[in-house]
């Protein structure tokens, strides 16, 4: 019981510290905290579909981008308040996930992974094509508004919600069924699990977070363009974070996001052009050497429960 | 957009579609081989094509070699690269859950693209070796595309003869039909995997080299090709090698038709919609294939 109590106390301390930080923190610090929350939410969301069901999404940035565009368009043309626009961004991402997931998740095998790989290119082409609505290649500017501190809290809440949702799912029958699909989909079907609808539900859940995060980021940065909201590197980064920390666990994506974000800010910021090379190498190394990530290693060594 | 469509335009579209389709078939055959033999979808297939394009480009620009003669050199180079990749990394995930092989080849793919960017920058590069068109019966045939078509079609035919008639080709097909039975028959399955990956990389390199003669190349050109090659396999039916031919031609034609009636900007969207439709209506492919 003792380690569990220590863990909970530690968690409360960290949350309180993060909650009071903006009161005296610098503008840069708040912005960095906001980005860290964003990565936790993104890596955690990717984990919901890919970590739990084993269906790899190579295009999760699509939900981030569609959320950013939906939010930005609603703010600029319809004059929505940004928190409402953020929710709409999440809804838009879920709608897209339904469109893609319905045909691609009915089948076993790599169809889903490839469809997600292609989705990125398609959305970038579409956004550039429908210039009237999206501003095309020249981008979309939002009215100026300094809401960094407010967005910090909302993004933090989003990250917390993704982690909480993961915990609830992993400890539920729904989560067990998802993990059964990951381990053996045919056996899952034979046991009477409606695999298609379970996969689809997990996919919709995993799309909502990035959609909201995208809309929040668009509001925070005040300007978006196709290249800035659909970059492949965002997908790569969230995959690396979730894998490094430990896919299929509750805290793995959090550990991965915090560790890699901090290292990235301190060490790698000097070599921005080599990030993909480094991330590619980490993915290869993690898949071959520690497929369960940092948390998986700790779980094995210290006999930690599955639900961390 | 409201230009009247004349029979000549349709003819032109058909010809252009077939010219492009042979290249799709050639590249997709490589991806289909790896998938058939190892059950691995090689996300790095497109980036390997890109490497083939760069080898061809540099042979042409540095040594002045005829680019069509540089293509075989690129194939040999990428054959070796493929062997090394399979020997060091990919063999470890053969037979592992699909997630592992997808992620591993994805990691290789972004590392290869980034390495190329660091080494050669992201600048567009072109081989201006052959320009202009032949006019045949009122149809314009781009010289570069027509010669590339002849190469692609011959290489694809060669690959099929190899698979059908040689002992090694038969061993590859046997392994893709049943790994265990192939082993029992005395086939060294590990060696077949190695050769298949090398061969598939060489086919991708051929596609890349021919592409370099037709269009400008840059390090990120490969991603779309992984996707399109997969689409070609889905159209033809997974595990059905001749299906790749049909799938390639079909994709070429559909894209050309789309550029006639819509716009070339949306050709990737059209390919995507095609994939989704096929998955909805006939997931086993148009010719039917082995279920995965």
SSE diagram, text form:
The complex is a heterodimer of chains A (308) and B (292).
Chain A: H1 2-24, H2 27-53, H3 61-77, H4 82-104, H5 111-129, H6 131-134, E1 140-141, H7 148-170, H8 173-183, H9 185-190, H10 195-221, E2 223-224, H11 226-229, H12 232-245, H13 252-266, H14 275-289, H15 293-302
Helix pairs in contact in A: 2-7, 2-10, 2-12, 2-13, 3-4, 3-10, 4-10, 7-10, 8-10, 12-13, 12-14, 12-15
Chain B: H1 7-38, H2 45-63, H3 67-88, H4 98-120, E1 133-136, E2 139-142, H5 143-165, H6 167-177, H7 179-184, H8 189-214, H9 222-236, H10 241-261, H11 267-281
Antiparallel strand pairs in B: 1-2
Give start-end ranges of low-pLDDT stretches of chain A. none
The CATH topology of chain B comes to: ABC transporter involved in vitamin B12 uptake, BtuC
- What is the makeup of the main sheet of chain A? 2 strands, antiparallel
Strand content of chain A: under 5%
Structural description of this entry:
The complex is a heterodimer of chains A (308) and B (292). Chain A has 308 residues and is mainly α. Chain A has a domain at 29-137 and 144-232. Chain A has helices at 2-24, 27-53, 61-77, 82-104, 111-129, 131-134, 148-170, 173-183, 185-190, 195-221, 226-229, 232-245, 252-266, 275-289, 293-302; strands spanning 140-141, 223-224. Chain A has a two-stranded antiparallel ribbon. The longest helix of chain A is centred in the N-terminal third of the chain and has 27 residues, at 27-53. The mean pLDDT of chain A is 88. Chain B has 292 residues and is mainly alpha-helical. Chain B has a single domain (12-122, 133-281), classed as Orthogonal Bundle (ABC transporter involved in vitamin B12 uptake, BtuC). Chain B has a two-stranded antiparallel sheet. The mean pLDDT of chain B is 88. Classes of the chains: A mainly alpha (308), B mainly alpha (292). Chain A binds chain B through residues 50, 54, 56, 58, 100, 103-104, 106-111, 113-115, 117-119, 121-122, 125-126, 128-129, 182, 232, 236, 239, 243, 273-277, 279-284, 287-288, 291, and chain B through 41, 43, 89, 92-93, 97-100, 102-104, 106-115, 117-118, 223-224, 226-227, 230-231, 234, 263, 265-266, 268-269, 271-272, 275-277, 279-280, 283, 292.
């Amino acid at each position: 019981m003792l380690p569990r109590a220590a863990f909970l106390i530690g968690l409360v301390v960290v949350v309180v510290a993060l909650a009071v930080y903006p009161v005296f923190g610098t503008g840069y610090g708040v912005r960095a905290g906001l980005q860290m929350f964003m990565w936790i939410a993104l890596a955690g969301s990717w984990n919901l579909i890919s970590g739990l069901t084993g269906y790899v999404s190579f295009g999760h940035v699509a939900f981030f981008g569609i959320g950013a565009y939906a939010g930005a368009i609603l703010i600029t043309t319809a004059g929505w308040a940004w928190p409402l626009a953020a929710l709409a961004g999440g809804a838009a991402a879920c709608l897209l996930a339904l469109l893609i997931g319905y045909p691609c998740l009915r089948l076993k095998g790599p169809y889903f992974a490839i469809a997600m790989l292609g989705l990125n290119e398609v959305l970038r082409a579409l956004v550039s094509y429908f210039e009237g609505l999206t501003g095309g290649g020249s981008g979309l500017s939002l009215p100026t508004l300094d809401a960094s501190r407010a967005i910090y809290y909302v993004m933090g809440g989003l990250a917390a919600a993704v982690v909480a949702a993961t915990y609830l799912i992993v400890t539920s029958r729904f989560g067990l069924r998802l993990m059964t699909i990951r381990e053996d989909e045919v056996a899952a079907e034979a046991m009477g699990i409606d695999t298609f609808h379970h996969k689809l539900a997990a996919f919709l859940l995993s799309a909502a977070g990035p959609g909201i995060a995208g809309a929040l980021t668009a509001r925070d940065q005040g300007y978006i363009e196709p290249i800035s909201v659909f970059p492949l590197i965002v997908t790569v980064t969230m995959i690396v974070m979730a894998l490094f920390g430990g896919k299929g666990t509750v805290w793995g994506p959090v550990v991965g996001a915090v560790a890699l974000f901090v290292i990235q800010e301190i060490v790698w910021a000097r070599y921005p052009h080599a990030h993909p090379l480094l991330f590619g190498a980490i993915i290869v190394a993690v898949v071959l050497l520690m497929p369960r990530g940092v948390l998986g290693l700790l779980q094995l060594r210290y006999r930690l429960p599955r639900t961390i | 957009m409201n230009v009247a469509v004349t029979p000549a335009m349709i003819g032109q579209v058909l010809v252009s579609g077939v010219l492009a389709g042979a290249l799709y078939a050639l590249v997709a055959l490589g991806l289909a081989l790896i998938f058939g033999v190892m059950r691995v979808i090689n996300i790095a297939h497109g980036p390997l094509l890109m490497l083939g394009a760069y080898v061809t480009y540099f042979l042409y620009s540095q040594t002045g070699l005829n680019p069509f003669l540089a293509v075989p050199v690129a194939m040999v180079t990428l054959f070796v690269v493929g062997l090394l990749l399979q020997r060091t990394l990919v063999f470890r995930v053969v037979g592992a859950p699909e997630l592992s092989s997808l992620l591993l080849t994805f990691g290789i793919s972004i590392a290869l693209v980034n390495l190329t960017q660091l080494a050669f920058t992201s600048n567009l590069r072109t081989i201006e070796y052959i320009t202009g068109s032949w006019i045949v019966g009122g149809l314009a045939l781009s010289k570069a595309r027509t010669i590339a078509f002849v190469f692609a079609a011959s290489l694809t035919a060669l690959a099929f003869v190899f698979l059908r008639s040689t002992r090694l080709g038969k061993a590859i097909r046997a392994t893709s039909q049943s790994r265990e039975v192939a082993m029992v028959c005395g086939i060294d399955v590990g060696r077949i995997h190695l050769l298949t990956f090398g061969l598939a990389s060489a086919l991708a390199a051929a596609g890349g080299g021919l592409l370099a003669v037709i269009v400008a190349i840059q390090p990120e050109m490969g991603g779309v090709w992984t996707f399109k090659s997969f689409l070609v396999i889905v159209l033809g039916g997974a595990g059905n090698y001749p299906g790749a031919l049909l799938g390639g031609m079909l994709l070429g034609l559909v894209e050309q038709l789309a550029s006639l009636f819509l716009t070339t900007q949306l050709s990737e969207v059209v390919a995507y919609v095609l994939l989704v439709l096929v998955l909805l209506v006939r997931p086993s492919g148009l010719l039917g294939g082995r279920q995965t």
